[in-house]
Amino acid sequence: MRKNDGFTMVEVIVIVAVIAILGGILTPMVIKEIGKSKMTRAGADMAAVATAFTQYYADTGYWPERYDGSNDRRTTLRNYDCFYDNTRNLSGWDGPYLEKGADNGGARVAANRTDGVWDGVIDPWGRPFRVVYGRAGGTSVGGGIAVVSSGPNGRFDTADADALLGTATDDDLVHIVTSRVGL
């Protein structure tokens, strides 16, 4: 009788088929879990930004802002250099308030785009967060601050008023920093 030195062609085909079936079953599950982990990370990153806003306010008595006087009270987080440097010469400033950031011509900013790629405090999909200042629900007194991620689709679908209420649209994510800002 002859000794077998390897696998038969049928055995190899069966093994390859089993691996292919397992791969077909597991791949969608792994992709779904990766998507969930990105959403979780975005939420944690937005909470860290909210903490930076709150700590800045606690130290200085002022909310960090980059409002330019237009009717559009939103901006990307990239414009906030006050988290890294006392740009307004406020007493009590004890930053930097964000650990992560990007260089922009020698200055430290929250996020910066170089050669089409964002760096710094960005969401898991590689884009900067949006900061919204305003009055929630059209109220005439007070206001709030919200941090918004455009989510996987890269579009900001959430209206500012909804963001200030903590309501996200489509795949956006919203984190309210505060609902007590004098505007």
Tell me what you see in this structure:
The chain has one domain: 2-Layer Sandwich (Glycoprotein, Type 4 Pilin), CATH 3.30.700. It is 31% helix and 19% strand. The protein contains two helices and eight strands. The chain has helices at 9-60, 160-164, and strands spanning 74-76, 102-104, 107-109, 111-114, 117-120, 130-134, 144-149, 173-178. A four-stranded antiparallel β-sheet has the order 1-6-7-8. Strand 4 and strand 5 form a beta hairpin.
Question: How are the SSEs ordered, and which strands pair?
Answer:
Layout: H1 9-60, E1 74-76, E2 102-104, E3 107-109, E4 111-114, E5 117-120, E6 130-134, E7 144-149, H2 160-164, E8 173-178
Antiparallel strand pairs: 1-6, 2-3, 4-5, 6-7, 7-8
Give structural attributes.
183 residues; alpha+beta; Glycoprotein, Type 4 Pilin; two-stranded antiparallel sheet; 2 helices; 8 strands; 31% helix
Outline:
The protein is α+β, with helices and mostly antiparallel strands. The protein has 2 helices and 8 strands. It has one domain (40-178): Glycoprotein, Type 4 Pilin, CATH 3.30.700.
Flag low-confidence runs: 67-71
* Rounded radius of gyration (Å): 24 Å
Name the assembly state.
Answer: single chain
**Share of helical residues:** 25-40%
* Gap between N and C termini: 92 Å
Order the strands across the largest sheet as they lie in space. 1-6-7-8
Largest beta-sheet characterization: 4 strands, antiparallel
SS content category:
alpha+beta
Order of helices and strands: HEEEEEEEHE
Q: Return the CATH topology.
A: Glycoprotein, Type 4 Pilin
Question: What is the annotated CATH architecture?
Answer: 2-Layer Sandwich
Average pLDDT over all residues: 84
- Write down the domain tally: 1
Proportion of β residues?
Answer: 15-25%
Q: Per the principal axes of the C-alpha atoms, what is the gross shape?
A: elongated
Figure out the total of helices.
Answer: 2
CATH class: Alpha Beta
